[in-house]
Amino acid sequence: MVTNLLQPPMTDSHVSLLICRTMNAMKLQNFVPARNHSRINTSRFGERPLWFRPITIIKVAEHNSGSGLIELETLAQKKRELYQAVEGINRGIFGMPSAKKSEIESLVQQLESLNPTPYPTQELETVAGCWRLVYSTISILGSKRTKLGLRDFISLDEFFQTIDISKSKAVNMIKFSARGLSLLSGQLSIEASFKIASTTRVDINFENSTITPDQLMNVFRKNYDLLLNIFNPEGWLEITYVDDSMRIGRDDKSNIFVLERFDDSNNS
User: Fold this and answer.
1) Consecutive sets of 10 residues in the chain, 268 residues long: mean pLDDT of each?
2) pTM for the full model?
3) Is 23 part of any domain?
4) Which residues are paired to 196 by β-bridges?
5) Number of domains composing the chain
6) Nearest-5° angle of CA 109, CA 134, CA 242?
7) Where in the sequence is the domain holding 211, given as residue range(s)?
8) Is residue 99 one of the residues assigned to a domain?
9) Which of 52, 135, 210, 256 allows an S-S link to 86, with CB 3.0 to 4.6 Å?
């Protein structure tokens, strides 16, 4: 009975055949593509050892998209840092500490070096529409501010720019308000035309300006030339950075402008 359960001894030929079959099976296994990679990367006991991961597939993915993802992450981070840096400084128009100005300009330069639109005037649709100023090196200090009455009486509110590429027109709209006197709240509008001067630069020509309502014009009439001198965009503008939500420019007066895209349906 026991004898029947025992297998006959393996001959040399049997051993050789078994070894060959085992080796062939191992070779075939090496060529079988891994399946369900997402299921073998980790387990409830933690990560698998490195040798067990589909390294080739991971490397290919990194090669194809890694640098692009890193650049997008860097852009997003720098934009966040810039928005944080300009918080609470009223666009910088009324001055700021030199350390803060250096911090902002450093971030501006970093973004300019990552500009995703290197030839903006060849893609003018990227600059079309309404933009809101978030930072500028235009300054209204000392006697300028006093003469304009901006210290105690009139405050400077939002600054918008609307660009119509079909007409090669740009309109700057500077809003003012008077504390406690809603009738004196209004805006200065400056209309200008522009033409392409290079792949990054446009030349700007002043056309006309208006202040509404008339009561606000009466406040600024005496120093209207000074007001226009501050906000008149005539000259040239270099577009140094533009994407779907932010635009940076530098003009011939060494000013820097940082603007964010704005839904002009809310701009009334």
Assistant:
1) 44 46 45 39 36 32 53 90 94 93 97 96 97 95 82 81 97 86 81 98 97 88 91 96 97 97 70
2) 0.72
3) no
4) 202
5) 1
6) 50
7) 73-266
8) yes
9) 135
